[in-house]
Amino acid sequence: MKKILLSAETGKFYKGNMHCHSTNSDGKNTPEELKEMYKAKGYSFLAITDHERIINYSYLDDKDFITITSGEYAIKEFSEQSTLKNRNMKVCHLNLYAKEQSNDNSVCYNDTFNHFVKDPVIKKELLERYGNYERIYGADGINEIIRIANENGFFVCYNHPRWSLENYGEYSEYEGLWGVEIFNTSCNRGGLYEYNINVFDDFLRDGKKVYASCGDDNHSPYSSFGAFVMVNTEELTYENIINALLNGNFYSSTGPEIFELYVDGNFVHIKCSDAKHITYSTRGRRSAIKNADKDSCITEATFEIQDIDEYFRLDVIDEYGRRANTQAYYINLL
User: Fold this and answer.
1) Which of 61, 161, 173, 333 could in theory staple to 139 by disulfide, Cβ–Cβ 3.0 to 4.6 A?
2) pLDDT at residue 115, rounded to an integer
3) May I ask the CATH architecture of the domain 258-334?
4) Chain region(s) in the chain for CATH 3.20.20.140
5) Which of 251, 183, 253, 180 is nearest to 218 (CA)?
6) What is the pLDDT of residue 9?
């Protein structure tokens, strides 16, 4: 029996950036400029994840473009120190995305961390509204923030672990995450390789069903348009985009596109843009690959699914080494 995982048959594909900064924190572009930049490039939604508070940018929305209410929080090994000065300090960065667009409740707000707001009146208003939550670096403190965010209508993504200098010993203890940022454009264009498919696999193999997300983390046009998620849903509404993200009806990419992904019997089939390689990965060592001939490309592949796999995920790799990554699909849930 055929089970469609991603397809234009079940809805349209909408392109979005899940990590972005404006002049309301440390970005060089205004929210209005960001909307125009991304809309002009064919994006349908944008999460402007300004630092240290949740901001609702719905005033920018129109029938062809939606903003996701969101923000990025830092939890630092030494809370009084800046990562610009202490380059060896471990940190954890989390993106909080609101399930309801009107939810701009900056839970776990910390006045010390929010050095991006210079206006003392606004600083005072934020402190009076949200209090001054003490953020403690370490699994207990970070899990507490994730728990509070989840309980207050947000879902949480773990950002750029390589830039954060975190390793398995730290992130393996995090609980309650929605997703892992497997690619970060800003880090890569700054010279720090931030392709974290291994971190995604670590969570999965530990039994944590997270999703693979990605984002530009752009602070300027230079670090824009390098990574995107493609959401598969019926129409462009905030509710539909959020529900698709929460249910894993999307893929992450740095270039290639996936047009169709479905399971038929014991086989998974994928159709995509021009690729040099398509890979099939599982929980264990069993894997498979389809390669294009030297002077050609492939646009589809079929792989056998075995019960021993537990789950599978597919990667599409083009001639430039850019990748599209599916989510992990658990065999017992298909």
Assistant:
1) 173
2) 82
3) Sandwich (2.60)
4) 11-254
5) 183
6) 87
pLDDT along the chain (334 residues), means of 10: 91 97 96 98 98 97 98 94 88 98 97 87 92 96 98 98 97 98 96 94 98 97 96 98 98 98 98 98 98 96 97 98 98 94
Chain region(s) in the chain for CATH 2.60.40: 258-334
| pTM for this predicted structure | 0.97
Confidence (pLDDT) at 1: 78
Question: Looking up tokens 């030297």, which residue turns up?
Answer: 294
- For residue 241, what pLDDT is reported? 98
Which CATH code is given to the segment(s) 11-254?
Answer: 3.20.20.140
Under DSSP, the state recorded for 331 is: G
Residue 79: its pLDDT value, please? 85
